[in-house]
Every structure is written in C-alpha cells, then in structure tokens.
Amino acid sequence: MAEFSVWAPRPERVRLDVEGTLHDMVRSDDDWWRAEVDARPDARYGFVLDDDPKVLPDPRSARQPDGVHERSQLWRPDPDVWSDAGWAGRSIEGGVIYELHIGTFTPDGTLDSAIEKLDYLVDLGVDLVELMPVNAFGGTHGWGYDGVLWYAVHEPYGGPDALVRFVDACHSRGLGVLIDAVFNHLGPSGNYLPKYGPYLSTGSNPWGESINIADADADEVRRYIIDCALRWMRDFHADGLRLDAVHALVDTTAIHILEELSAETDSLARELGRPLSLVAESDLNDPRLITPRDRGGLGMTAQWDDDIHHAIHAAVSGERQGYYGDFGSLESLASTLKNGYFHAGTYSSFRHRRHGRPLDTSTIPATRLLAYTLTHDQVGNRAIGDRPSQNLTSGQLAVKAALALGSPYTAMLFMGEEWASSSPFQFFSSHPEPELARATAEGRKREFAEHGWDADEIPDPQDPATFERSKLNWDEVDDGDHGRLRHIYRELIALRHNEADLADPWLEHLQVDYDEPQQWIVMRRGVFAVACNLGPESVEVPVTGEVVLSWGEPSVGANSTRLDGHSFAIIRATD
C-alpha cells in the first residue's frame, strides 16, 4: 500500500488517479486529503479536483516524466546508490564557486554529461558547483527560473536519478554542490497550484504574482517552501542552496521565512553532521541578511554582492549605463572592495533614493559576501547576452579576475568565464503554449527597444538557435589566449587556497591604494600586493618585491613596479 496526500483547501472534492483508476480521498480538518491504495513504486498518479476531469500533477511531485502538465510519478531516493558516506561537507565561506547551467554547460545538456566535465573543474581548483535551477518547468529548455513544480527535477536534464548521480560524482571528487532555488514566484506554464490552495498572495513582483508567505492561510505555503528547500539538502545531499531574489519574499510576519529556513537548515546540518550553506541573492544591501540569528539577523551564510560586480566591471570596461551609473571610478571600486557595499545608506542615482546600510566589517567577515565578475544575470539579462570576453581584451579580463579572486570575499565564476568563452549566454525559453511563446518574444524585444536597442537585434528567446548558440564551445579551452587566461584563473585560485594572507576574511586588514589619473589600484593583503593597471598604457605602481603571478611582463624596481597596460601582478614583499 502507498499513502498519497495533498493539501487542497479550495476544492470540495479531491480524487486520486493512479494509473487511470480513480480513488476517493478523505479530507482532514487541516485541509489535507489522504488515501491509501495499492500502487507500484513507479506508478503514475495525479489528482482530480471537483468536477474538472483533468488530472493534475502533485504539488510535491518528485518526478514529472512527461512534463509539468501531465501526471506525476512516484520516486524515492535509493540509499544504496550513494557512495558519499564519507563526505564531510563543505561550507561556501572563503571558497570558489562555479555557477553553471546544465542545459548549456555541455553539448548534450544533461546532468550525466556534466559529470564528464567535473575533473576539469577539479583541475581548475573550484570548491563548489552551483547549479542554476533544476526544478521542473514548462518546455524542454530554459533558464529554470520559471519553475512550477519545485520538488521535481527537470526531466530533460535526466530527472531525479541523474541529479543523485551528479551530486554523488561531485562529492567523490571533493566538490560541494549548491542548487539554485526559486521561491519568490511561479512560472506561467503549468502552474496549477492556485487550483489547490492560496499559494499566491495579492501582491506582485517583476516576475508575476508573489508567493503567499504572510497572508491568510500562509502557514502551509511556508511549509511547502521550507520542506522543498530541506529536501534538496537531505534527499539529494546538496551542500546548500542559492536563494533567488529574496528581496521579493515580502514577509510581514514576526519571524521572517528566511530566518525560519536558516534555523531549520542548521538543525538539518546537525542531524547530517555536515555544514549546509544558504546563499541569498538580494538587492537590498542589508547586512541583517547575513547577520547571525542570535544577533538579530536572518542567518544567511552569505549573499551575492552586485556592488562588487558593478564596481569591477564599470571600472575595467568603462560602461556607465543603467545601474553602472554610480560606478566606474577607482574611488568607487576602492570603496566597494574595502567596505563590501558601495551603496550603504548613500544616494543611488539608478533608484533615485538612498539605498543600503553600512556593513559592520569588524563582526561580519568578507567571506559572507560573494565577489564575481560575471553571473548568468549579468550576461543573460543584457540585450544580446554578450559576455565581457566579447568586448574586452584578454588583459582586461585578467585584471577583473585578479580583483575578484585576489579579494577577501568568497569568489564565484560563471561557466566559461575562466577561458573567455566566445559563446554568448542569451535569454532562452521553450514555452509550449503559442500565445505565451509569442508574448515572451515580443516582451523581450519591447523591453530593450525602450532602452534604445534595435528590436531586430534582440534574439528571439523561443528560437531554438538562441539556446544552441548559448552552449559552451569546449574546443576553444586551450587555444591561445583562452588557455593562457584559464592558466591564470587556476593559479589565482591556487594562491587563494595556499596563502594564509590571501585567505584572511577580515576587511579591516585590507588596504586599498589607487591613482585615478594613472588608473592603477592595489589591494594590500598581508605580505601580498595585488596590483592592477586598468589603463591601456604602462604605469609605475609603488610596490616592490617578488612577482608570484602576473599578466603581462612587470618590471620590478627598487621602489616601484612597472605594469603593462591592462595587466596585473601579485607581488610578495621580500623585506
């Protein structure tokens, strides 16, 4: 016998469909419906609500073999498949994270094919792999942020069994795994949750209707979110989650859902005997997010820090449009590197108001903030999905890498960044509904046309070619400057791992010097100086010692070092 249950306060009648046979379900006072029936371990099933004959998938479905519009399938993790009993876990703090999208990481675009590239990542030196969302969403390919069945693994990636194999393979190589989880909205294709209950609130965010985490009947919706989050870490052995756009989780209750999730994650970590990390994406620049719960914070392990990205990218590239408007100077770069946030109760010209709150650098280590020069957002949300490698010199890319990887912050790379991949990462989707497909394509063109782009230049997200051209070209990894840059990334990561001064997490120990007209900046970290020349002409930088890594050919003198244009040198003091 198998027990089936579903929370469904809205319908007056719920029937269970198992392999085409209907069974009545019994409603409890808590609006959960339950039934016990004979069923195979891999039976297809779903629920029929009231008089609507359509069989709907289970909101907590573990597998959707035929897509998000069809019946669910029973699935349980097989404990005998795992070989990671000796895995002690890995915290993200101070590590190097590698963000990747399963569908475009390899030509086949599956979890099993991604396993074949794990030895490459080990050689690169990364500590954890961060998977863009692998939850079930409508269509065959997409970014994954329009998921509608959060508990299921996207079937074209290989489904839940493939995710088990992937995580197990990572752990066998010493790699941790983070899974990107989206709890702030639901996608437009296959979202049947409102038929069951009040999963959506009266509010909205840029991606659609908000999730009900504070309105009437929110308790079960909060439980739905937290149980899903814990499931990735318990059933799939993930080492943590990246939580998408938590600023869109509008919670007016006394105990914020992130604080609740943090507490339950810590409890699960104690039960499993290994560290578990929660990394939040937030637009708020609010240090309370990464402040421990016992000090009045929400207890997130770390957060993405877009200010660091903006400061590095604008200073190196010269771009000033949109949210880069307040960045670009070495003064803003130095301030951000030194303080974690650039906007910390200061005026944001992009938002037309004050933004952020100062970070207490004496109590919050830099490792609770992520530094990066590239993310899926910072490429894919550009009009044509162009990478910095398509616009900057190899030297400029190397300088960006030195600033991020040479900083005290936890570091993150986006797939292919380390070899200056020539492939764009464009916004792509595969909505099966014609009207939704058309609206998505037209909306994308209209959005960027309003910002001055020629609508004809904007890739159609529904065109399969947009997806195909976003796949990495692994043939170029070792070619020329591609291979040279990859070597630099590997050496920068090795220095982070092997040198105590470069692993120091405290911003109070960081010194930053710069010369705006000469376009050089130096991060001093113990005996090391990370000296970067952002300008095209060679300059004299007031540091000297032993060059341990460089891009270009630095010339060390008695009192200074000459750096080529668009180059860097990491110099160890010899006094």
TrEMBL record:
Chief subcellular location: cytoplasm
Region (Disordered), start-end ranges: 55-75
SUPFAM superfamilies: (Trans)glycosidases, E set domains
InterPro entries: DUF3459, GH, GH13_cat_dom, Ig-like_fold, Ig_E-set, Trehalose_TreZ, Trehalose_TreZ_E-set_sf
Entry keyword set: Carbohydrate metabolism, Cytoplasm, Glycosidase, Hydrolase
Catalytic activity: hydrolysis of (1->4)-alpha-D-glucosidic linkage in 4-alpha-D-[(1->4)-alpha-D-glucanosyl]n trehalose to yield trehalose and (1->4)-alpha-D-glucan
Domain Glycosyl hydrolase family 13 catalytic intervals: 99-496
Pathway of action: Glycan biosynthesis; trehalose biosynthesis
Pfam families per the UniProt record, alphabetical: Alpha-amylase, DUF3459
Top EC class for this record: hydrolase
Localization annotation: Cytoplasm
Protein family per UniProt: Belongs to the glycosyl hydrolase 13 family.
NCBIfam families according to UniProt: trehalose_TreZ
Protein name in UniProt: Malto-oligosyltrehalose trehalohydrolase
Organism: Mycobacterium deserti
Name of the coding gene: treZ
